[in-house]
Amino acid sequence: MSKFIQSFAVLLLLVFAFQNLLAGEWRGNISLESRFFKEEGDFGQGSEQYSLRFEPEYIHSFDNDSSMTFQALIREDSMDDERSHIDLRELSWLTYGDNWELKVGVSKVFWGVAESSHLVDIINQTDSVENIDGEDKLGQPMLNMTFIRDWGVVDFFILPLFRERTFAGVDGRFRVPIPIDTENSLYSSEDEDKHIDAAIRWSHTMGDWDVGVAHFSGTSREPIFVPTNAASGLVLQPLYQIIDQSSLDIQATLDNWLWKLEVISNNGFDYDRYTAAIGGFEYSFYDVAESGIDVGVIVEYQFDDRKVDIMGSNKFDLLVLGARFAMNDEQSTELLVGMSVNEKVHNTFWNIEASRRLGDSWKISIEARILSNIDELKPSLSPFHAVRNDSFIMLEIARYF
User: Fold this and answer.
1) Which strands form 233-240's sheet, in the order they lie side by side?
2) Domain segments of the chain: what residues?
3) What end-to-end distance do the CA atoms of the chain give, in Å?
4) Torsion of CA 336, 342, 346, 349, to 10 degrees
5) Residues in contact with 52: Cβ distance below 8 Å, sequence separation at least 6, in sequence order
6) Strand 186-187 relative to strand 233-240: parallel, antiparallel, unpaired?
């Protein structure tokens, strides 16, 4: 039995052993996930991948206006050793008054309004082995002081320890041809992963408008890669540089329209300051044909004035089209269908997500990530060329407690 399965079993026993002894609330989920790939991998990976995931969470509220939160993730994967991992998503203490809050510990913070990507969401590191959509984040050690005023909310962050990005292993899917050497990461700061980062954000709701303005100074969550000759051959070493990033996010709710904008200006990489943005809208049709179904039409455009991405592929602007279906039934059935296409070589990435509750405690989810129209004769032109054979359908069933 692997150490991950052992840890899974121990934590599961602790949850059920102590949930009646501690004055707090235990909750979470256990899920079984199956991925079925359209083709064999370029490096001998099979077409089927299975994993078991456990996410326990504990919340305890104290009498003196404070609370403690614990959340962990444990995954055991059949294919990729790097995807078999344990992460402390949250272990934090929160205290608050009438117009202030203080949080200390490991936690997660979300910034952003766009559907297809979150440029401004920079506090937590991306957990790339969980999913390729960038939605999963590692827990970040922090001190977060919040001041709540009539003119807005101001958040100050001190981030003392850096978390490196996770990447698929040599036996995993969605890996690049050259192995990434995560054991020997490089840093531009002499303090390496102990550099103290900082951020500030002001946010405010003004009628139909939600606005956020932020600035981050510290270690970039997005590495660049340095080709290096190691004993095992050519590898890519992640290089994390010190950056300054300013951002703006705006969302306007105007009747059936939801307008969204995220903009960043980033300085500190080896290239000059660059600007990136995502803008678009979601228009909702409610109770279509008196069926009780709501449909939201999504249109977004992604702009980035860098020439290449972090893997060295050409960087193209993207048009994103999608539709969200909410059935509004007792089982909370939902469906999201989206596609993105780059402006020059027209590579297409399809994303489909559907979910439905089964009774009070179970949930079934289906995901599909499909890549198409990739020219195998011109790999440098496609940001998806390295993962062109990794289209898959995922089925997950989860038990919530």
Assistant:
1) 186-187, 233-240, 224-230
2) 3-400
3) 25
4) -30
5) 5, 8, 30, 31, 32, 33, 75, 76
6) parallel
CATH of domain 3-400: 2.40.160.10
pLDDT(216) > 90? yes
Specify whether the CB–CB gap between 168 and 125 falls below 8 A. no
Burial class (CB in 10 A: 0-12, 13-18, 19+), 37: buried
Q: 15-22 — which CB contacts under 8 Å span 24+ positions?
A: 15/56, 15/401, 22/58, 22/60
| Contact indicator for 27, 109 with CB cutoff of 8 Å | no
- What span, in angstroms and rounded, lies between the C-alpha atoms of 220 and 122? 8
Question: For residue 333, what is the DSSP state?
Answer: -
| 300-to-126, 279, 317, 320 alpha-carbon distances in Å | 22, 5, 11, 5
The secondary structure of 104-147, three-state, reads EEEECCCCCCCCCCCCCCCCCCEECCCCCCCCCECCEEEEEEEE
Helix (H) / strand (E) containing 198: strand 197-206
Is residue 355 within 8 A of residue 393, CB to CB? The reply is: no
Task: Give the Cα separation of 354 and 367 in Å (integer).
Answer: 6
Within 201-280, residue ranges assigned H as helices are none
Q: For residues 133 and 243, what is the distance between their CA atoms, to the nearest angstrom? A: 23
pTM: 0.89
Judging by beta carbons within 10 Å of its beta carbon (0-12, 13-18, 19+), is residue 272 exposed, middle or buried? Answer: exposed
Phi, psi of 242 (to 5 degrees): -80, 130
Helix/strand/coil percent split, the chain, to 5: 10, 55, 40
Residues 164-213 have pLDDT tens digits of 999 999 999 999 889 999 999 999 999 999 999 999 999 999 999 999 99
pLDDT in tens, 104-123: 999 999 999 999 999 999 99
